[in-house]
């Protein structure tokens, strides 16, 4: 009687462990799919792949000409912010080009080097932009990214998804997948040993 109870408890534990392993594998597949349709296209689409050194030529804030998220809108409630423009000397080619924070900054507003979130406090945004401008004037030389193919003549300060960030994004689903597969393998080995012991 006790032996039957032990066998039943063992089967239940194996079933639960097997479900856990399969669940982990399924979750890792979903994470791979999500990364594949969001982060990977953004990484491969970016043309700013080569790193060089940029030297600040001028950093100006256009206080009188504010940039908005939607230039065609005449609504006064549209979020406006001071437009920071940073021009740098590209060491790789010696050209004078405009600097953007990331790839997304260029898409959102090609006139400004920095685009804040539209839900932020206008006073805080103005203070932050002034701080960024002063930092650029203080630190004249810094690493930046440019397009080696020449399709984009501007440069960016940092990539949204660098290679390290992409590898880090794949790290967690890989660990989850490996752990799930390991659990499944251990359960199968345990079942095989149990059947072998019973046969002997």
From TrEMBL:
Superkingdom to which the source organism belongs: Eukaryota
Record GO terms (molecular function): calcium-activated potassium channel activity; potassium channel regulator activity
Magnesium keyword on record: no
GO cellular component: voltage-gated potassium channel complex
Keyword Glycoprotein carried by entry: yes
TM stretches of this protein: 20-40, 166-187
Protein's membrane topology: Multi-pass membrane protein
Keywords recorded for this protein, A-Z: Glycoprotein, Ion channel, Ion transport, Membrane, Transmembrane, Transmembrane helix, Transport
Major location category of this protein: membrane
A biological process from GO: detection of calcium ion
Intracellular or extracellular location(s): Membrane
Family membership noted in the UniProt record: Belongs to the KCNMB (TC 8.A.14.1) family. KCNMB1 subfamily.
Protein name: KCMB1 protein
Organism: Casuarius casuarius (Southern cassowary)
């Amino acid at each position: 009687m006790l032996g039957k109870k032990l066998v039943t408890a063992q089967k239940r534990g194996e079933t639960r462990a097997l479900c856990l392993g399969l669940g982990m594998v399924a979750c890792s597949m979903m994470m791979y799919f999500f990364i594949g349709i969001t982060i990977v296209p953004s990484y491969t689409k970016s043309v700013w792949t080569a790193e060089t050194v940029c030297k600040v030529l001028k950093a100006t804030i256009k206080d009188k000409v504010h940039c908005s998220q939607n230039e065609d809108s005449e609504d006064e409630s549209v979020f406006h912010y001071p437009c920071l423009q940073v021009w740098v000397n590209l060491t790789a080619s010696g050209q004078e080009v405009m600097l953007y924070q990331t790839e997304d900054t260029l898409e959102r507003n090609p006139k400004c080097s920095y685009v804040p979130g539209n839900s932020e406090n206008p006073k805080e945004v103005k203070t932050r932009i002034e701080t960024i401008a002063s930092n650029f004037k203080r630190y004249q030389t810094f690493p930046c990214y440019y397009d080696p193919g020449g399709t984009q003549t501007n440069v960016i300060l940092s990539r949204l998804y660098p290679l390290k960030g992409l590898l880090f994004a794949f790290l967690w689903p890989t660990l989850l997948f490996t752990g799930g597969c390991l659990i499944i393998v251990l359960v199968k080995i345990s079942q095989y040993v149990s059947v072998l012991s019973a046969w002997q």
